């Protein structure tokens, strides 16, 4: 068990105006599993992902990643935990505009002060078909290419889990298929646990398991 | 074409856009305000100086009216009023002069004056009224002091009035008095109309008949004239004479030269222009940067507006309107604050400029000061907005959508390149047509495709330092502007510091004092040539006998002076012509002086004519000095043997040099040692002397005004008094032993304040005090300038840093998401600030050193008593402060930014 979320609750507001973004969600993910979380907009799926990745803290409940209860960590420790254990892929690609592709990919590793595992990173880069673009700046890449760089970045630090938030939300359907296909291939190749949220059923079909969420509860 | 009225909507969009950015507006308004403050204070100070200079000139002319005509008959005076461009006139009637013994040194003129005339000639009673009864009199406090009359209306004034050949001695009743002013040409004494009519009725024969004497003033009308327009006074006066049927160039017609253009020299003008440029540049750097950043930050918005059909021209208007709406707040605020700053600084500057008599440091807040300051501020805003307006106007929807910081420049530049291609290659016109929304997309994509391979970035190890460095480089232009803005104040600080430390006490004291004390009449340095009689013989015998008995004194020395016209003998003239007129090197000087109005004759004569007249008549103006033996060693650049006993024999004279510098920088001798010269005294007696030596007279031993030729001769004191006649010295120099300096200072203060108020003294101590106050002025004025410029620089930095951080909010959140700790982020933004500080340091050290050794050095050398010294210390001292500010600002900015959680910041807007 690489990820274990237990009875996660996230409430906003007080008393009458209370919004239950998550209302007692429990979820566990096995190592190497590719899970898709599907739900309509406002169903709480993004909130769940943020909880799992330690970007946000639950009102109650626990998240254990790689046998570590992250709700016990303070801000900086959480941040360090994130760069070691979690890889994020966002809808908006969120690359650092002043860094080239390679620098973007190795950013989390170097922020951690670690040496880059060149062989592994090159492997990831070549699987994601970015070898040609290593020295390009993000603004000269297409959307699909930028998202592939984001995926490479998420994988570079060999995280315990890769969390992807609508990774294809900004891409056209052809490119989406492309990127997702590569993501799946990469995940299988490196035995990577992946949790992806999407509202697109078709995309969700590519996952090993689909979890549906509605009004803050898993259905 | 159909006219569409869309002004209102453009206005509304501009106003709404402006209102949406309140926080940013504060910075923009502050920037505009600071610029306006600088302009207003510079104009206030400059304007006040001009104003005071003009007032002082008017006081020395004796009137504030535009023109004056002397010696008129009543009929002629009445005719003046018929001239349509004459606004008003007022007159006075010459009665005579006061002949009291006590007034020997004070020129007085007795008049009947109209009230308006008294006002315009600065002699309207401040206490009491103008005389009405026959035995009433009104005069200045200076005359009252001399006559020992108390300042009381109703006091008895015993006066001896000389009217032509008649002397009327009687007791008058003081009807009022005005504050006397030493620099006015004469003290006014007003009598009543009755008195004037009784003793000297207005004469009726006109000067036009040419049968009256020059000196026949009494009983004639002098009119002061004001025109509706204060410009072209000479022309208006010429036309006036024309209309009245008077011949041109009547000797009795004069214009007030205080109105004749400000005689600002090129250096002062240059300095003023330099200051204005400096303000425009510093204002430009910040206002430009603010609007530049604002436009880029709102680039998507402008792109959107363009997509939905707003034209480039309208977008330009939208940006410009925001700028001037902000100016509407910033400029007035700056005007008031600037007037205040100017008011505070003015006393320091005015104190330095040494105005005579009662100069008040009150600022006259003239409308034009505000108009000019506002105009210059607006001009700065306008210049600053040109580029930002253009960017907004040329933005395309596609370019805007792809915006990330530092990137749009590229897109705009792409566009400019495209335009160039467009010109080169007409065939591709359709593809590159940019203003069409659909066309633009293609071309951008195409261009970007080309760029892909071009713009690659070498891979570096990603460290906080590297990231920070890269971030500061995102927009090279912004970096440059901020660095320039910050450097400006540092460079100026360095320069001003260099000026202040270079200001040399020893040089200054040596230049302004050649003895421990120097005593002369107050008008010597204030009165000008008009008061020569008093000024050149001002040290009284009473004073000389007092100091003769004073045992504090070690040494004294006198300098006597009399102005003369030197008539050449044939032999003298031959040598003079060869050395001066036929000397090609001296021509420039001669023409300059002849042209400056130093001509012996009238203004109508051209310089060439003036010179040829001198050549015909063979006389030039000069001065004969008598100098005590003790002062002879103060003569400079002596050529020949200065044998004191020979000089005292009475057959020798020391000659001087013409200021006409020859090419090798050496002044030309009037006469050479061994030449014979014949001098004339005021009685017309002549005596031949042999030139013993040639020397330059120290400025402090000379009369302080000059003529076209200062042909000076120096005799020994005894010979001077024998030949020129017994007279009072112009200046007396006193040396005392070190321990008696203070005692002497007290004694002189007492003497000049209590015993003889006409005398003034200067001392080394006073000169030293003057030195420190001058230095202080540079410090304070320079300090204020530096402080405001520094404020502008720092404001610019804050604005740049904070906006840059705000626009990277999401990026920062993402970096946190991928594992950059808050500490690391904070370090990164602080380092970005430090990079700005480092670039500023490099820029200001390099330029500061360079300018200190060139521009500031040149400026310093224009000043008296300046020794250039290398300086870079102020910059070095400021560096830690700069680094502290530069790292603190982002740190604080970051603190406020991270209040929101990562998730909130990550959200796409």
Notes on the structure:
The complex is a heterodimer of chains A (219) and B (909). With 219 residues, chain A is of the alpha/beta class. In chain A, the strands form two sheets. In chain A, strands 6-7-8-3-9-10 form a six-stranded mixed β-sheet, sandwiched between helices. A four-stranded antiparallel β-sheet of chain A has the order 2-1-4-5, with helices on one face. In chain A, a hairpin with a 6-residue loop joins strand 1 and strand 2 (19-29). Chain A has a single domain (3-218), classed as P-loop containing nucleotide triphosphate hydrolases (Rossmann fold, 3-Layer(aba) Sandwich), CATH 3.40.50. In chain A, helix 3 runs parallel beside helix 5 (143-156), helix 4 packs antiparallel against helix 5 and helix 5 runs parallel beside helix 6. Chain A is globular. Chain A contains seven helices and ten strands. Helices cover 35% and strands 26% of the residues of chain A. The model of chain A has no long low-confidence stretch (mean pLDDT 85). In chain B, a hairpin with a 2-residue loop joins strand 6 and strand 7. The model of chain B is unreliable at 405-454 and 597-603 (pLDDT under 50). Chain B is elongated, with a radius of gyration of 37 Å. In chain B, helix 1 crosses helix 10, helix 17 (476-502) packs antiparallel against helix 27 and helix 17 (476-502) crosses helix 29 (822-853). In chain B, the strands form three sheets. In chain B, strands 11, 12, 13, 14, 15, 18, 19, 20, 21 and 22 form a ten-stranded mixed β-sheet that branches. Chain B is built from 32 helices and 22 strands. Chain B has 909 residues and is of the alpha+beta class. Chain B folds into four domains: 1-59 and 263-403, no CATH class; 65-255, no CATH class; 474-514 and 761-909, no CATH class; 539-757, no CATH class. Classes of the chains: A alpha/beta (219), B alpha+beta (909).
């Amino acid at each position: 068990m690489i990820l274990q979320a237990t009875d996660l609750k996230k409430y906003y507001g007080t008393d009458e105006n209370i919004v239950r973004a998550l209302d007692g969600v429990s979820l566990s993910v096995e190592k190497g599993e590719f899970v898709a979380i599907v739900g309509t907009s406002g169903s709480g799926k993004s909130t769940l992902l943020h909880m799992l990745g330690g970007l946000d803290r639950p009102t109650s409940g626990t998240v254990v990643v790689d046998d570590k209860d992250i709700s016990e960590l303070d801000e900086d420790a959480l941040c360090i935990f994130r760069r070691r254990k979690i890889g994020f892929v966002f809808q908006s690609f969120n690359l650092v505009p002043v860094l080239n592709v390679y620098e973007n990919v190795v950013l989390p590793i170097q922020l951690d002060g670690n040496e880059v595992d060149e062989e592994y990173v090159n492997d990831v880069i070549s699987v994601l078909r970015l070898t040609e673009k290593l020295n390009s700046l993000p603004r000269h890449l297409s959307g699909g290419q930028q998202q592939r760089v984001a995926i490479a970045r998420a994988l570079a630090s060999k995280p315990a889990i890769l969390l992807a938030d609508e990774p294809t939300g900004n891409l056209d359907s052809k490119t989406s298929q492309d990127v997702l296909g590569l993501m799946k291939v990469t995940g299988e190749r490196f035995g990577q646990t992946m949790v992806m949220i999407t509202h697109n059923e078709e995309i969700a079909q590519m996952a090993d398991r689909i979890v549906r969420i509605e009004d803050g509860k898993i259905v | 074409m159909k006219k569409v009225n869309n002004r209102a909507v453009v206005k509304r969009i501009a106003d709404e856009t402006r209102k949406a950015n309140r926080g940013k507006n504060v910075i923009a308004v502050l920037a505009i305000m600071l610029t306006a403050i600088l302009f207003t204070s510079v104009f206030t100070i400059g304007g006040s100086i001009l104003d005071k200079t003009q007032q002082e000139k008017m006081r020395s002319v004796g009137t504030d009216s535009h023109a004056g005509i002397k010696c008129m008959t009543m009929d002629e005076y009445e005719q003046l009023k018929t001239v349509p461009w004459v606004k008003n006139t007022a007159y006075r009637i010459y009665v005579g002069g006061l002949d009291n013994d006590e007034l020997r040194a004070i020129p007085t003129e007795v008049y009947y004056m109209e009230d308006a005339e008294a006002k315009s000639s600065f002699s309207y009673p401040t206490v009491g009224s103008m005389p009405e009864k026959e035995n009433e009199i009104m005069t200045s406090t200076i005359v009252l002091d001399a006559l020992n009359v108390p300042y009381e209306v109703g006091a008895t004034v015993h006066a001896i009035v000389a009217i032509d050949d008649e002397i009327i001695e009687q007791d008058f009743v003081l009807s009022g008095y005005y504050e006397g002013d030493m620099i006015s040409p004469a003290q006014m004494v007003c009598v009543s109309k009755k008195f004037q009519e009784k003793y000297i009725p207005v004469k009726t024969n006109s000067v036009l008949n040419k049968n009256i004497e020059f000196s026949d003033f009494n009983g004639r009308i002098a009119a002061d004239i004001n025109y509706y327009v204060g410009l072209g006074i000479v022309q208006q006066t010429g036309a006036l004479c024309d209309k009245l049927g008077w011949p041109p160039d009547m000797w009795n017609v004069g214009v007030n030269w205080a109105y004749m253009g400000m005689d600002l020299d090129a250096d002062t003008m240059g300095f003023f222009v330099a200051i204005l440029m400096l303000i425009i540049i510093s204002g430009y750097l910040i206002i430009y940067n603010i609007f530049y950043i604002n436009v880029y930050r709102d680039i998507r918005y402008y792109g959107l507006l363009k997509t939905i059909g707003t034209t480039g021209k309208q977008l330009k208007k939208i940006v410009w309107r925001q700028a001037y709406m902000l100016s509407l707040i910033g400029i007035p605020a700056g005007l008031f604050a600037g007037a205040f700053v100017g008011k505070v600084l003015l006393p320091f500057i005015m104190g330095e400029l040494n105005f005579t008599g009662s100069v008040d440091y009150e600022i006259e807040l003239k409308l034009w000061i505000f108009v000019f300051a506002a105009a210059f501020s607006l001009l700065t805003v306008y210049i600053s907005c040109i580029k930002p307006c253009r960017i907004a106007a040329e933005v395309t929807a596609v370019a805007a959508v792809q915006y990330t910081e530092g990137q749009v420049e590229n897109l705009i530049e792409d566009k400019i390149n495209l335009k160039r291609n467009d010109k080169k290659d007409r065939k591709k016109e359709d593809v590159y047509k940019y203003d069409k929304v659909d066309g633009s997309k293609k071309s951008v994509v195409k261009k970007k495709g080309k760029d892909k391979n071009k713009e690659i970035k070498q891979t570096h190890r990603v460290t906080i330092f590297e990231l920070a460095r890269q971030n500061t480089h995102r927009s090279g232009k912004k970096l440059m502007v901020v660095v320039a803005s910050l450097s400006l104040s540092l460079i100026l600080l360095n320069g001003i510091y260099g000026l202040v430390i270079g200001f040399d006490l020893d040089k200054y004291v040596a230049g302004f004092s050649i003895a421990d004390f120097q005593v002369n009449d107050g008008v010597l340095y204030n009165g000008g040539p008009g008061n020569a009689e008093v000024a050149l013989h001002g040290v009284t015998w009473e004073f000389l006998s007092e100091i003769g008995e004073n045992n504090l004194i070690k040494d004294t020395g006198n300098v006597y002076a009399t102005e003369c016209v030197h008539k050449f003998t044939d032999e003298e003239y031959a040598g003079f012509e060869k050395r001066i007129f036929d000397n090609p090197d001296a021509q420039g000087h001669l023409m300059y002086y002849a042209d400056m109005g130093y001509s012996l004759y009238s203004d109508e004569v051209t310089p060439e004519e003036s010179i040829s007249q001198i050549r015909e008549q063979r006389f030039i103006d000069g001065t004969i000095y008598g100098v005590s033996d003790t002062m002879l060693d103060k003569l400079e650049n002596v050529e020949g043997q200065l044998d004191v006993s020979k000089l005292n024999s009475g057959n020798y004279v020391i000659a001087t040099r013409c200021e006409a510098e020859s090419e090798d920088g050496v002044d030309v001798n009037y006469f050479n040692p061994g030449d014979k010269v014949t001098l004339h005294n005021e009685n017309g007696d002549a005596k031949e002397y042999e030139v013993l030596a040639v020397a330059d007279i120290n400025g402090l031993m000379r009369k302080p005004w000059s003529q076209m030729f200062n042909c000076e001769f120096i005799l020994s004191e005894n010979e001077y008094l024998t030949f020129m006649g017994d007279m009072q010295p112009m200046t007396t120099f006193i040396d005392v032993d070190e321990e008696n300096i203070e005692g002497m200072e007290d004694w002189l203060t007492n003497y000049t304040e209590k015993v003889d108020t006409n005398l003034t003294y200067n001392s080394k101590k006073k000169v030293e005090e003057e030195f420190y106050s001058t230095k202080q002025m540079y410090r304070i004025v320079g300090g204020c300038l530096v402080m405001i410029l520094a404020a502008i620089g720092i404001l610019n930095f804050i604005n740049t840093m904070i906006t840059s951080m705000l626009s990277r909010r999401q990026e920062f959140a993402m970096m946190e998401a991928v594992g950059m700790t808050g500490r690391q982020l904070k370090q990164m933004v602080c380092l970005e600030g430090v990079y700005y500080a480092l670039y500023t340091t490099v820029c200001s050290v390099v330029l500061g050193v360079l300018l200190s050794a060139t521009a500031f050095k040149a400026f310093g050398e224009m000043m008296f008593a300046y020794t250039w010294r290398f300086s870079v210390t102020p910059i070095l001292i400021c560096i830690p402060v700069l680094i502290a500010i530069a790292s603190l600002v982002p740190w604080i900015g970051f603190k406020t930014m991270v209040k929101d959680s990562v998730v909130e910041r990550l959200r796409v807007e």
